[in-house]
Design brief:
heterodimer, A: alpha/beta, Rossmann fold, globular, B: 5 domains, 5-stranded antiparallel β-sheet, 4-stranded antiparallel β-sheet
């Protein structure tokens, strides 16, 4: 028996005992190919997936290394079938190659003829390929580069892309490290992206993904298109870039519903790109407006389906995706892999928290009991109405008020899903409310006021879930969410994690109604938090005052 | 060797040495052994095989014999035969070799038996002339043994027979072999326990033919997270070890159940349990490798099917493992080529076994790998002990390679508990009750959920006990959410209660109910108060009602919808009998009867009309047959005289349709239907076409 920190299960999960002396070596060894699935306090769970193994192959690791890592750190015998499976899965990557041919342009070639024959016979692929050059290679329509990669991944024969990238229109960009400097992990992230050519960087919220984007732009030295989720976040990108790089405000354009500027660095929202008029994407020409050298996808886990299709046509440009979590509720991780690129960098939240770059958080679930009358109403409600009923109970309002009182003087966000409830809360707490219909200008003003401390309390709807930098927020109270979405939970918690001074920790409260679907959904989200390594507590509303 | 003797029929030692393609010393040794076994005896004329041996040794090379025919009565010397072979044409030579390759026998249709070499027209005739083929009865040509030997370069076989086929091997650290095998051994024990535990709760049905349904096998495989063949192996081994048998469940249907021996087994140490399984596997005649394959009749073999066994199985296993045991330490079967080379070797050792034996050998190595006797292609130390049926040595050898049982789990805030190794049996069972298993392997991941905690409460645990148990097995502090979960489930546990009652009594007057409840005569009614205004009774309503009235109460009965039912006694009335048929139907029936009577009468009339005036002459059956055939051909209607079962004679007007098996199929005009007439009962046949006036 070997005294290793790793236990390899036959269902392809790896359990890593983190208190073990060799745990950090083991983590380093398995991180390239295994996806971290859960990281609670004692034992982290990694999973071996084909995607993860292919990621590793793309990053230059081979099956021998993977097997060796497993064998040397494993405490018990590694199931033989698993090792065979790893070798087989990894062997599938790179049998097909996308290459640039001097005369034929883009070609798909293979060293393994049966594989090529197999994929050539797949119906979905037939339309993307042109003439057969010889036995081992076939012409690919250059516009289908992305689609082909996507389709090949689905067939289980991911192609290695050697076709390279266009440099794009050069534009000098430099980081302006005055009074701050690139953190080590940011530097590593930007570099591993650049070596890989394109791919996704996974960093927790608050860890400075914008900076990683800026660093990547400084590496590219070319015109850049940045795609973000909404206008507010577009403005934040602009401010940040002006502050952190040699770019001036004139060089950065905003392309959104209200402004349409195309400058060497252009920040566009997903929404404007996916706007359709009479079935035509009217703003698609933006993608060809310039010879972009780099495309940055912010919050890549939210990338809407039409953007995927557009991205398929941009395979010759360098692409970087930034996200806090690769978890997509729609399960389209595979498309991110094939279209934007494999995961190039990943750091667990807890590690970065330990380095002091993001704030520690105290997560508490507060359970309230529905009043008798509402319990009856809930019991007889239609299933689709139940969640709303449970979420919007008045019992929550009282709890929120008590929580706000407890944290008086600390910048607090109250986050919710249902507008009626938010309006009611805002009125009761005497705080401004930000929701979808709030004009951008007003939003900006309120956020600025919050940052400066003028407004210590904001009530926000889900518009604030993403990419709005509110570094000063110390307390978040969540009253309702969209049906237990894990990704939303990560985003909301992320609002709080921008580092605070004096090592203060953030507080994250979730108010849920006991014995209802609300509690069931909450369980889903809490499990996610626990799996990210955040210990959480559950308390009853009645005990609220005693637990301080 | 023996085969060479048969070919030579009677020969000397030296002659034998010459024709057996092997080292002379080995041949001599083999001869002595055969003499000792009394398969060969030393006659005055030389060595002779026992009569009967020749018959037993039929077949071709795949069956391990040369396929040569006995030598002819006067074989020439090898030189003469060789000379004759030289003399024939290439075509004839090719033909001869073809005959040799096809069992030394051929047939010919038209070759002349006695021809001289000079006027042979065909290659066959040429060969016959040179006495290279000897004609036998029925055009069969036999290739005599001496010719075959000459063709094969002077030996009975083309390839030497004393070279042991090499095993394809590669080097592997013996410690790794033992470790891999230990891992597999542990898995087998764990899965067997899981399997039988599961079947103890939900036993699968026994098929009428005695096996296990394919569907159950599939379900079991997914439950155990193994492939179907592996699940089949586990099931068969458990059955072979006496841990599983077919018995009647409480409903009386046959199911597969763990035996009482399972409980003893489960209480033993992992090493002991493994040794039991491994030994059972080694000696069983069952053929787990065939599960899922088709039998000769095209039916799929079910696991545990009674016929799924072969006496060859234990021998094949022992032989295969013995070959592995003979390998030098540090050598194992090479991946890919190792197993085929082993099969080759075993085939050489036991040439007379049918080809299925080879499959058994390959399967044996595979199964031994799954069971932990073989690891990474080499026999483990424990495997050697098992092969020698040395139970204690097996225990000693396997123990260091099994994971040590652990007595604690690590609890985490995401409501999982991870056991970083195999748990002690008792602990594992308890945890299994409290939490759901999420992942199995070297370690086990359990998840606490509402449902799993409630399950524990259902089994009689209290919240306090759960807290205490969790606290005692956890090496880490108990996360607050888990404590909260247990308490939360405890809070809602049992809020809705379900019970049994035959009847209920309700009244707004609580005092009246109290009075009833305490009435001395009401004790037999089984009354119990479940709410201030509700009593339940264990007596059905129709008994309860008169008794309550007897006690002076004035109850009314509630209908299922809650309305009051008046309990007036129903006056009993029977339904008026109704004529079963309507008038129209009766009329139609009467008309039909009339119509059929008329038809019968008319047909009788026609029969009478056609009757010859002269007295009927009894025709013979043969003339009746002739007449009937004629009638069938000309499609005539005839009148037949027919004697029925009771000896009554009648005349029938029929259209004969066909004659077969002594019976006449004919359309009978009277019944207006086709019916059969026995020909021997037909007395007369008269055509109707010539009616008498």
């Amino acid at each position: 028996m070997n005294d290793g920190p790793l236990i390899v299960q036959s269902d392809k999960t790896l359990l890593l005992e983190i208190d073990h002396p060799r745990a950090s070596d083991a983590r380093k060894a398995i991180a390239p190919f295994a996806e971290l699935e859960r990281s609670p306090e004692h034992i982290h769970t990694y999973r071996l997936t084909p995607l993860g193994l292919w990621n590793a192959r793309a990053a230059g690791h081979d099956a021998e290394q993977v097997v060796d890592a497993l064998l040397s750190f494993s405490r018990y015998a590694v199931p033989h079938a698993l090792l065979v499976d790893i070798a087989e899965t990894m062997g599938r990557y790179g049998r097909l190659r996308l290459e640039k041919h001097p005369t034929h342009g883009l070609v798909l070639s293979s060293t393994d003829r049966p594989v090529l024959e197999e994929v050539l016979r797949a119906k979905k692929i037939a339309g993307m390929l042109g003439n057969r050059i010889d036995d081992d290679s076939v012409v690919v329509h250059s516009s289908e580069r992305g689609n082909l990669k996507q389709a090949l991944l689905k067939l289980g024969w991911p192609a290695e892309d050697f076709a390279g990238y266009v440099d794009g229109e050069a534009h000098p960009i430099a980081l302006d490290q005055d009074g701050w400097e690139l953190r080590k992990y940011q530097q590593e992230a930007a570099e591993s992206f650049w070596h890989g050519g394109s791919g996704v960087v996974v960093l927790p919220c608050g860890a400075g993904k914008t900076i990683v984007g800026a660093a990547a732009m400084a590496q590219a030295q070319a015109t850049t298109l940045i795609l973000v989720t909404n206008t507010v976040s577009a403005r934040q990108w602009k401010d940040e870039l002006v502050k952190r790089t040699s770019l001036t405000a004139d060089e950065i354009g905003e392309y959104s519903g209200s402004v349409k500027e195309v400058r060497p660095v252009t920040i566009a929202t997903y929404q404007v790109l996916t706007t359709r008029r009479k079935g035509v994407y009217t703003h698609l020409e933006l993608l060809d407006a310039r010879d972009w050298g780099l495309i940055v996808y912010d919050e890549v886990h939210l990338l809407p389906a039409p953007i995927f299709r557009m991205t398929a046509n941009l395979q010759a440009r360098r692409r970087i995706g930034l996200t806090a979590t690769l978890v997509r509720e729609d399960g389209r991780e595979g498309e991110v892999f094939s279209l934007i690129g494999p995961k190039r960098y990943d750091a667990p939240w807890k590690d970065i928290e330990a380095q002091g770059w993001i704030a520690p958080a105290d997560c508490v679930e507060v359970r309230v009991t529905l009043p008798e009358g509402q319990r009856l109403a809930y019991a007889v409600a239609e299933p689709e109405e139940r969640y709303r009923l449970a979420s919007c109970t008045h019992a929550k309002i009282d709890v929120v008020r008590r929580l706000v009182d407890q944290h008086e003087g600390q910048p607090t966000l109250v986050i919710g899903q249902y507008l009626d409830q938010l309006d009611e809360l805002a009125e009761l707490l005497g705080a401004p409310v930000i929701k979808g219909e709030t004009p951008v200008k007003e939003r900006q003003r309120l956020f600025d006021a919050f940052r400066s401390g003028e407004e210590p309390l904001l009530v926000v709807s889900k518009v604030a879930n993403f990419s709005i930098d509110l570094p000063s927020a110390e307390v978040a109270i969540q009253v309702s969410g969209s049906f237990g979405s894990r990704q939303e939970e990560a985003q909301r918690l992320g609002r709080l994690l921008r580092p605070k001074g004096e090592g203060k920790s953030a507080h994250f409260y979730t108010v849920v109604s006991r014995d209802t679907v609300d509690a069931d959904f909450a369980q889903n989200r809490q499990r996610f938090l626990a799996e990210q390594g955040y210990a959480y507590r559950i308390i009853d509303a009645a005990d609220l005052d005693t637990t301080r | 060797m023996l085969d060479a003797l048969v070919v030579a029929n009677q020969t000397t030692q030296s002659e034998l040495l010459r024709i057996v393609h092997a080292d002379p010393a080995a041949t001599e040794a083999a001869t002595e052994r055969l003499v000792d076994l009394a398969l060969v005896w030393e006659s005055p004329g030389g060595l002779r095989p026992l009569s009967g041996v020749g018959e037993a040794l039929r077949g071709d090379e795949s069956a391990g014999v040369s396929g040569l025919r006995p030598m002819s009565a006067e074989p020439g010397t090898p030189e003469v035969v060789a000379a004759r072979l030289e003399a024939i044409s290439p075509r004839a030579r090719a033909l001869l070799e073809h005959v040799l390759a096809n069992g030394g026998e051929g047939t010919t249709g038209n070759a002349r038996r006695t021809v001289s070499a000079a006027d042979a027209a065909t290659p066959v005739e040429e060969l016959i002339a040179h006495r290279l083929l000897i004609p036998r009865d029925g055009g069969v040509l036999v290739l005599p043994g001496e010719v075959g030997i000459a063709l094969r370069g002077g030996y009975t076989t083309t390839s030497p027979r004393d070279e042991v086929p090499e095993l394809a091997t590669s080097e592997r650290d013996p410690a790794l072999v033992d470790r891999t095998a230990g891992g597999a051994a542990f898995d087998v024990v764990r899965r067997t326990e899981l399997l039988l535990d599961h079947w103890g709760l939900e036993p699968p049905a026994t098929l009428r033919s005695g096996g296990l349904a394919v569907r159950d096998l599939k379900a079991t495989a997914s439950e155990l997270q193994v492939s179907e063949p592996e699940a089949g192996l586990l099931i068969e081994v458990a059955s072979a070890a006496g841990l599983l048998t077919s018995a009647a469940d409480p409903d009386g249907s046959e199911v597969w159940l763990p035996t009482d021996a399972f409980d003893t087994w489960a209480a033993g140490s992992t090493a002991e349990r493994w040794a039991t399984l491994a030994l059972a596997w080694l000696d069983t005649t069952r053929l787990p490798s065939l599960i899922g394959a088709k039998d000769p009749g095209g039916k799929t073999w079910n696991a545990l099917a009674p016929d799924l066994s072969s006496v060859m199985a234990p021998e094949a296993r022992a032989l295969a493992l013995a070959q592995l045991a003979d390998l030098a330490p540090g050598l194992v079967l090479a991946t890919g080529t190792g197993v085929p080379s082993l099969v080759e070797r075993v085939a050489w050792l036991r040439p007379r076994r049918p080809s299925v034996h080879r499959d058994l050998v390959a399967a044996a190595v595979h199964e031994a790998g799954l069971l932990g006797l073989v690891g990474a292609g080499g026999l483990s130390t424990a495997g050697r002990a098992v092969l020698a049926h040395d139970h204690d040595a097996a225990l000693a050898a396997i123990t260091p390679h099994l994971p040590h049982p652990v007595d604690h789990v690590l609890l985490q805030a995401d409501l999982t508990a991870v056991a970083p190794g195999p748990l002690e049996t008792e602990l594992a069972r308890t945890l299994h009750l409290l939490a759901d298993v999420e992942s199995r392997g070297g370690a086990t991941v359990y998840r606490f959920t509402n449902g799993s905690v409630r399950r524990a409460f259902d089994a009689g645990w209290s919240a306090l006990e759960v807290h205490e148990f969790v606290g005692s097995v956890s090496r880490t502090p108990i996360p607050q959410p888990l404590t909260y979960l247990v308490d939360d489930v405890a809070r809602t546990f049992g809020t809705v209660r379900v019970g049994h009652a035959e009847a209920f009594l309700r009244a707004d007057d609580e005092a009246a109910l109290t009075e009833l409840l305490h009435h001395p005569k009401a004790s037999t009614l089984g009354l119990r108060r479940i709410a201030p205004t509700v009593l339940i009774s264990s007596v059905p309503v129709d008994v309860l009602l008169p008794r309550l009235r007897g006690l002076g109460a004035a109850p009314v009965v509630e209908a299922p919808d809650g309305t009051v039912r008046v309990a007036r006694r129903d006056l009993l009335r029977a339904r008026r009998p109704r004529s079963s048929r309507t008038r129209g139907a009766a009329q139609a029936r009467a008309q039909a009867t009339v119509a059929s009577v008329v038809t019968a009468i008319r047909s009788g009339d026609r029969a009478t009309a056609s009757r010859p005036t002269s007295p009927t002459i009894a025709t013979t059956p043969s003339s009746a047959l002739a007449a009937l055939r004629e009638a069938i051909e000309s499609r005539e209607t005839v009148v037949i005289g027919y004697v029925d079962n009771h000896g009554a004679s009648s005349d029938r007007v029929v259209d004969p349709l066909r004659l077969e098996g002594g019976q006449l199929m004919a359309h009978d005009h009277r019944s207006d239907d086709e019916r059969l007439f026995a020909v021997h009962r037909i007395t007369t046949v008269t055509p109707l076409s010539a009616p008498q006036p």
